[in-house]
Specification:
alpha+beta; about 240 residues; Cyclophilin; globular; about 25% strand; 12 strands
């Protein structure tokens, strides 16, 4: 009978072990996460000279129309050259179009508990991204007035006041340190930054998914430097 060498036995066993290891390793990789990712490049030439990359993971399953709206604005370049409009050191940073130069006159209904929407259970904790709201002529918050300005909560304490009162749409997955730095910019009593910080570009990775156009309505209130033609819809 032919004698089988130890090497001949060992090599097939080694191959089996390696194959099993690869299978176990690859099974740990989550390929099911198809959430879109927004990448924002800050402009280092702004007065604050704060550059760097910020990334947002969006949650379309939690706030679908809000995410569809946000995606549409990114694709249309709304967040390119977009300013930081509010800073609270260690607590909050808000981005927007303070003078409405980009003339976005479409708004969406708020997907949050206080507006009768109960499927959005994203907690407002450090790193949560939410949509800002507008006020009516009497200064009251309008729950159906989100027009693209968004904020990032940098502390759990700050997030408590937004729970159920704003639509959370995602979370920061990169660049929280940059947002912390931005939040410490010197500001006026109304939290408007004294020195400008702004985005350079905002790009989108849809991970092969498609998203419908958001359901929107015409904006009711116009603050800032806007022409009468724009208000009347003729510009």
């Amino acid at each position: 009978m032919q004698k089988i060498s130890k090497k001949a036995i060992f090599l097939p066993i080694l191959c089996i072990i390696m194959s099993l290891s690869i299978c176990v390793a690859t099974s740990c990789i989550d390929t099911s996460n198809k959430n879109p990712i927004v990448t924002i490049q800050m402009d280092p030439t702004s007065k604050t000279q704060i550059g760097g990359t910020i990334q947002i993971e969006l949650y379309p399953d939690k706030a679908p129309n809000s995410v569809n709206y946000f995606i549409g604005l990114v694709l249309n370049g709304f967040y390119n050259d977009c300013y930081v409009t509010k800073v609270m050191a260690g607590h909050l940073v808000e981005f927007g179009d303070p003078w409405y130069l980009k003339k976005n006159d479409r708004v969406i209904a708020g997907e949050f508990a206080d507006n009768g929407y109960t499927d959005n259970d994203i907690e407002f904790v450090r790193g949560t991204v939410g949509l800002a709201l507008d006020t009516d002529k009497e200064g009251n918050i309008d729950n159906d007035s989100a027009m693209g300005d968004f904020f990032v909560v940098l502390s759990d304490e700050a997030g408590e006041s937004y729970l159920g009162k704003r639509a959370a749409i995602g979370k920061i997955i990169a660049g929280l340190d940059i947002l912390d730095e931005i939040s410490r910019i010197k500001n006026y009593p109304n939290y408007q930054p004294v020195y400008s910080a702004r985005t350079e570009t905002a790009t989108l990775d849809l991970k092969g998914q498609t998203y419908p156009k958001a359901v929107t309505t015409k904006r009711k209130y116009y603050a800032g430097y806007v022409t009468e033609d724009f208000i009347n819809g003729t510009e």
